[in-house]
Amino acid sequence: MSAPEIKRFVVEQFADDVTVDDLADDFDLLDNGVVDSLGLLRLIAWLGDRYSIPVDDVDIEPDDFRTVDAMTAFVARHRAVPAAG
Amino acid sequence: MITWTEDQRSLRESVEGLADVLSDGHVEDDQRGAFPRAKWDRVAATGLLGLPVDAEHGGLGQDVLTTMHVLEGLGHASRDGGLSFSVSTHLASTATPLNRFGSDELKRRYLPRVAAGELIGAHAISEPSAGSDAMAMRTTAVRDGDHFVLNGSKAFVSNGPVADLVVVYARTGPAGTAAGTTAFLVPRDTPGLGFGGPIAKMGLKTSPLCELFLDDVRVPADHVLGRVGSGFLVLDYVMKREILYSFVINVGEMQRRLEQVVDYAKNRAQFGSTIGRFQSVQNLVVDMKVGTETARLWLYHTAQKLQSNKDTTIDVAISKLVASEAAVASAMNAVQVFGGYGYMAEYGLEKDLRNAVAGTIYSGTTQIQQGRIAAMLGL
Ligand SMILES: Cc1cc2nc3c(=O)[nH]c(=O)nc-3n(C[C@H](O)[C@H](O)[C@H](O)COP(=O)(O)OP(=O)(O)OC[C@H]3O[C@@H](n4cnc5c(N)ncnc54)[C@H](O)[C@@H]3O)c2cc1C
User: Fold this and answer.
1) ipTM for this prediction
2) How many CB atoms lie within 10 A of CB B167?
3) CA distance to B48, B67, B89, B250, per residue, from B73 (Å)
4) Taking CA atoms, what residue in B is nearest to A31?
5) Of B307, B55, B245, B316, nearest to A56 (Cα)?
6) For chain B: N or C, fewer Cβ within 10 A?
7) What is the largest CA-CA distance in chain A?
8) The whole model's pTM is what?
9) Does residue B93 belong to the interface with chain A, where contact is any CB pair within 8 Å?
């Protein structure tokens, strides 16, 4: 269920000139300058908080946050890991 | 309120015990502007430089809060603010990213000696034309087989003149993008790496700083910290700790200054009364107390939040703002309470003021922190 929510956050925070329906799942937010470096930090912080991902401790790279698809996969990957692991 | 364990207290006591050694000759050292290597070695011998490094790599494996508790003790004990700044730079710039993002092989090779303080670390982010806007950096790293070739120049490298390892941030992608930089661990003797002479500055004079020149510097690809393109994320991880470490040292310094000022105000007499009885003097001292406690609360609150994996973007910015500005005010008020003696080099209080001014600039200026807070508020 994370994709629509992530998309809504991205649109609200970074691209309020487009609608949620207009934003493609594979649109490159970094190369297109929608999300700048400070924006990337905000995105990571929000995802970490919203989905209880210990972002300081897991392996992350900017590619994980390039597109809505990539973020959805990132969330799925780290939520799948049991809390102890 | 944090209740510290016996272990945490005894780690701190080993540093507090060095107060006389570390403070010895601090005014003269400041005037000479030389890095006090012998004092560095004394600090290293307590294990402090390995506090946040995993035990399997020769460190003490302590968390951020414990590291801060001990660093506050360093600030309280040592009157050599430059030395303390070099300590926090070493911990944040090199020990932190190597421990968190280095490959096993890289850690095995360097981390034990970093933790022991035998190898001194530095980091090079700022450039002559890219300071606050670090992502506009021009230094490039181009892949060539199993190496990267680095070219460019860096300004303001703290510890640079004495560093054995420098974490260099360079562009591996388009300028200005969030995925365009990479962090490299570069040993001092790498061919093509040039260090400028120590640059004279306003304060923190015992913490030497220089420029760095990179002329076809070949760095093995396995010396990348984190992934290629994730330098900005490495830097964010580092900056959070740099702010917590260096400003909790300032809290220790503010605490010591407060004790010194209270003592002076109780003993110095004018107009037939101690100056501590004058309300306007009391106000100077009270403001110092409030500033110290506020900075301390913010820093430890932020560290606790960080350790429980909460978003600390805004907390770190507020902590940095509050602590750096409180440090300047505390140093300024101490000069005022000491009157003419405060202004004289001999007492070391004018030095504290010069040192404190730097805190409003490094690790992101006051204005940059304000900008971050505004951005987090959606402005
Ligand atoms: C003692 C000391 C030690 C340092 N050590 C290191 C080190 O080890 N490694 C390293 O890489 N760097 C180091 N630095 C450099 C430091 O990080 C930079 O000085 C800092 O980032 C500011 O960059 P700048 O000096 O280019 O100033 P600029 O970025 O040119 O800023 C000049 C002024 O403009 C303001 N400003 C800039 N952008 C904005 C904005 N967007 N909004 C509002 N105001 C803005 C600033 O707040 C400042 O007042 C050190 C600096 C000092 C003083």
Assistant:
1) 0.86
2) 27
3) 11, 10, 16, 10
4) B177
5) B307
6) N
7) 41
8) 0.96
9) no
